[in-house]
């Protein structure tokens, strides 16, 4: 469906008419109270598209995330405006911690590198997973542990209360989705999805803040290459255009319209697809400059990646058993490989290109 992008809000940067994906909206407040109809809707969208909007305006926890989302954007604007030299002090050479400069991974176009920088946050202990701890004590525990952490950037330490709350609530959203999906799939006992995302086990769950600065048409860096997400559920926020999803029906990329001030975008990742005996749909997506190869505005996005415990065993697209942590590490290595190598294996797109057609 071609949409008049000049009527869209937020405004589409540019005069071009582009295809926009029509995504369903799931109500988070209804999921929190385990509304059966909403749970069924959640399962349906995860089995058909694997990408949907989550309305966060219908409960107090959701409203708090929407508020905090704005504070995280303000933090990001300030952080990414620093010089590269300063930001590199936070480079931890890690997929889970600290700063990543532009150009580490492969871009959307042949022989181009990526056009985004990131700041990743993972706390030493995930205290929000311990509901029995009173929130004040939780805060103290967080501050004491992470004040000493060499992995956590100082600018994050300075906003620890904001990140603690935002990541705790993001975790609540993603684990609620996981529980509802287990219910909807009729899973019981050790087969429930929560059982491979246990609170006291090590995982690669983390928060990633992404910044796509303006670029020229002749830049050697472009976009965020096509991929499926590594983990189970991604909670994503952005106020700017650029995210696209591959539509198998038309075999074309479609833009996802940002819906700021109330909605998150959710997508299913490879691990959840593999854990659900491939019943759930891990969708193929990418980020490109909305105006023909030129990124005219700064784009900021916030992704909270829920991933299974490191030791969980997945059956990948080729039917091979792989530990969740190995799938994570191998996929990150593949993000940096040239297109030719990426196209030879199923890892970059979690085997979804076999199902969807080649993007
Ligand atoms: O920046 C975005 O909107 C999406 C980023 C993304 O797909 C990812 O980091 O996995
Ligand atoms: Fe992604």
TrEMBL record:
Q: Name one GO molecular function term.
A: metal ion binding
Pfam families given for it?
2OG-FeII_Oxy
Record key words, sorted: Iron, Metal-binding, Oxidoreductase
| Domain Fe2OG dioxygenase span(s) in chain numbering | 202-308
The UniProt entry, under InterPro entries, shows: IPNS-like_FE2OG_OXY, IPNS-like_sf, Iron_ascorbate_oxido_reductase, Oxoglu/Fe-dep_dioxygenase_dom
According to its UniProt record, which protein family does this protein belong to?
Belongs to the iron/ascorbate-dependent oxidoreductase family.
* Stored PANTHER family: 2-OXOGLUTARATE (2OG) AND FE(II)-DEPENDENT OXYGENASE SUPERFAMILY PROTEIN-RELATED
Protein name listed in UniProt: 2OG-Fe-II oxygenase family oxidoreductase
